[in-house]
Amino acid sequence: MRVGVIGAGMYANLSLNNYVAAGVEVVSVCDVVPERAKAAAETFGVPNVDATHEELLERAEIDLVHVVVPPVYLATISRDVIAAGKNVLSEKPLGVSAEEAADLLQRAEAAGVVHAVGHEMRYDPLHRHAKNLVAEGFIGRPVVVNARDFTNYATNPKFSTFYSCWPRMVADGGGVMQQHLSHTIDLIQSIVGPITEATGRATTYQTTAQVLDPSISPAKLFELGAEAPTIGTVEVDGDDVVTVLATTATGAVLTVSSGWTVQHPTGLAWEIHGTEGILTLDGEGVLRGARSGEELRELTATEDVGVQGAPDLLRRCGLGVAEPMHLPFMFQEFARDLSQVIAGKRETGAYATFRDGLATRRAMDQVERSTVRA
């Protein structure tokens, strides 16, 4: 598979690194700041740098275009990708409204292109195993789901300057709901089905944040961490704690909470109660389950949902806070899965499609319309 990448900020640079690790060829990269694209190309051996995304889309050899830009620009650029007849991977969330997401889905299906949303967490083996267990009837019909995921991205010096720019601004598609909780909603929906009704409460506790010196590329933030130079503070309005109450098409009741301004992250944890049993995932990344009348026991994922290069994921990850950074391995598996579908070696993959992205976007829009902001 040959990829073109639109956007060369912090996450794009992580993606470039993982495409290389997955054996995927990156043909070209572009960015509105040309120096960023040039630096990324030099670092990862990308042979071409295009001045605009329109120029990149003219490259006939590109099989997939990865759109890695702030959400407010995702729909416009993704429409251009689809119009060019290219398979498209859009970062999350899919647009800044359900209307944008529905339009992208319609366009992608009409064009017959492969379409995916950047929810690489779907490739965590424990979540894939849980999805299979639910589909096989291990817990019967899911009826109650409680999930929570709290991180310190906005307080940890390694991340905090990045989370003071557009990811904290509502107008740009920022806030913890769109930039983090969307992952959790997608994961839960992949296991128990799409949300049909949702309401919630969003809060912004941190109203100011440090601003990264504009001379520093966001790609350098993991390297610089707390040493990243800043130029003062800015007011931010993106939510940093959100709680969602929702129901699924099959009648399950969900509560999902997320935040990124805590001092001590607790990781992703959830419990799914069904008519015949239970599945639980704790913050340490341990999956357990039991059917009616059984004792709760630890469950290990099966080999068929494993991740190349990270066999330990079969027993523990679940995106637990105590685990090593396994997300790069998941993205690499994501890239390999997409390449198999694009090459015609399989009809579908485990990734989130634009249809899944629309379901998540609709749920977030319902929460946004009904939420009470503290």
Care to describe what's here?
Strand 4 (64-67), helix 4 and strand 5 (87-90) form a beta-alpha-beta unit. It is globular, with a radius of gyration of 20 Å. The protein folds into two domains: 2-119, 3-Layer(aba) Sandwich (Rossmann fold); 121-323 and 350-373, Dihydrodipicolinate Reductase, domain 2 (2-Layer Sandwich), CATH 3.30.360. Helix 4 (71-83) packs parallel to helix 5 (98-111) and helix 7 (176-192) crosses helix 10. The chain has helices at residues 10-21, 34-44, 53-57, 71-83, 98-111, 125-135, 176-192, 221-224, 327-342, 354-370, and strands at residues 2-6, 25-30, 48-50, 64-67, 87-90, 115-117, 142-150, 195-203, 208-212, 230-235, 241-248, 253-259, 267-274, 277-281, 287-291, 297-298, 372-373. It is of the alpha/beta class. It is 32% helix and 24% strand. The mean pLDDT is 91. The strands form three sheets. Strands 16-15-14-13-7-12-11-8-17 form a nine-stranded mixed beta sheet, covered by helices on one side. The chain has a six-stranded parallel beta sheet with strand order 3-2-1-4-5-6, with helices on both faces. It has a two-stranded antiparallel ribbon with strand order 9-10. It contains ten helices and 17 strands. The termini are far apart.
